[in-house]
Design a protein that fits this description.
Layout: H1 11-23, H2 34-47, E1 51-55, H3 58-68, E2 76-80, H4 86-93, E3 97-101, H5 112-118, E4 123-126, H6 138-148, E5 151-155, E6 163-164, E7 167-168, E8 175-179, E9 192-196, H7 199-209, H8 230-261, E10 267-268, E11 276-277, E12 283-287, H9 292-304, H10 321-327, H11 333-341, E13 342-345, H12 353-366
Parallel strand pairs: 2-3, 2-4, 4-5, 5-8
Antiparallel strand pairs: 1-9, 6-7, 6-11, 8-9, 10-12, 12-13
The structure holds pyridoxal-5'-phosphate.
């Protein structure tokens, strides 16, 4: 099976971990040990902002950033339903109410026009998601947020290597949240980072990460244990150096696949726009006018032929039982349609050109 994603770990990561293990410093109770601090410095440089705060998952990054944005019990947060559940989950854990908002069917990202419709008195923040690795429409979203005095927390979990107006994803938001889960463009096994230009937000995030403590046993606010370990940071430093080559390979594979599939009228292929550039985390196609059944049969057939096609996301969050019962009610027509028609194909850094040709030709044979 050619998996949809696969971490690429080399001897460099192995050696970096051994070095940390031999040093005896595995973590630091007040937030960040020397390796985590170094990783944060490098990650902030990569993200083009002043601060990076490393945590132990992308979900923890989102939860922390939502608290730091001032979301409190009963506040509304506008976000897409067409995303991984963690985007909404983090809002609910913080006491907020997710307001699920429809997407632009061309990019699958939250639609600025739909955001405007959902702004209410209790709205506190917007979470655009860079879905599949394509930057959200962050400039129009930021303009809306400024006009209504809302925070923008970008879910950049899939966006390592994506750009907007030539700048790294996340730069134009108040804070951006990255995942370092094993499937992502770069990984620490589990891990996350929040990036921000705001000194005040960074300070709050550092407290939230470690029990609200600046000094031991003197919590200044409610906090958590969201610390990243030195071992994770050691892997992250190596992966960050390799990231440009990983993204370049994904881009090359995406171009090659697009060349093969471009002749099929029924397929909507992933496209970059003048402003929004891809990290190519996922290469997602859409079978236009397909029923869910028809799409599922193609995915099954591809999998039978050892191609690890997957559907992201087969169930939009607002239709999941828990979210439907507690925060549901709205119909999101573009989201629901997309969930029935899209599927993703492997193009990660471990996929060879010959495998891309096999994937393209196999799919052509099924349509
Ligand atoms: C869009 C999105 N948001 C949030 C997350 C949560 O990240 P993590 O799995 O690191 O907690 C992920 C990845 O899993 C994701 O893809």
């Amino acid at each position: 099976m050619i998996p949809i994603n696969l971490p690429k770990i080399g001897e460099e990561e192995v050696e970096a971990v051994i070095k940390v293990l031999r040093s005896g410093v595995l973590s630091q109770g007040l937030g960040a040990g020397p390796t985590v601090t170094q990783f944060e410095k490098k990650f902030a440089e990569f993200a083009g902002v002043k601060h990076a705060i490393a945590v132990n998952t992308g979900t923890a990054a989102l939860h922390s950033a939502i608290i730091a944005a001032g979301v409190k019990q009963g506040d509304e947060v506008i976000l897409p339903s067409f995303t991984f559940v963690a985007t909404a989950e983090a809002v609910v854990i913080a006491g907020g109410k997710p307001v699920f908002t429809d997407i632009n069917p061309e990019t699958y990202n939250i639609s600025p026009a739909e955001i405007k419709k959902n702004i209410a008195k209790k709205t506190k923040a917007i979470i655009p998601v860079d879905l599949y690795g394509l930057s959200a429409e962050i400039k129009p979203i930021s303009e809306i947020a400024t006009k209504h005095d809302l925070a923008v927390v970008e879910d950049a979990a899939q966006a390592h290597g994506a750009t907007y107006n030539g700048k790294p994803a996340g730069v134009f938001a108040d804070a951006a949240c990255w995942s370092l889960y094993a499937s992502k463009n770069m990984t620490t096994g589990e891990g996350g980072v929040i990036t921000t230009d705001s000194d005040e937000t960074a300070e709050a995030l550092r407290l939230i990460r470690t029990h609200g403590e600046k000094a031991k046993y003197a919590s200044l606010m409610l906090g958590y244990n969201y610390r990243m370990s030195e071992i994770q940071a050691a892997i992250g430093l190596v992966q960050l150096e390799k990231l440009p080559s990983f993204v370049a390979k994904r881009r090359e594979n995406a171009k090659r696949l697009t060349r093969l599939l471009a002749k099929i009228e029924r397929l909507q292929l992933p496209e970059e726009t003048k402003d929004q550039q891809h990290s190519w985390y996922l290469y997602t196609v859409r079978l236009k006018n397909a029923t869910e059944n028809e799409r599922n049969k193609i995915v099954e057939e591809l999998r039978r032929k050892s191609i690890g096609a997957e559907v992201y996301y087969i169930q939009p969050v607002h239709l999941m039982p828990y979210y439907h019962e507690n925060f549901g009610g709205r119909r999101l027509s573009e989201t629901e349609k997309a969930a029935k028609q899209v599927f993703s194909l492997p193009i990660h850094q471990g996929v060879t050109g010959a495998q891309v040709d096999y994937i393209g030709k196999t799919l052509l044979g099924l349509l």
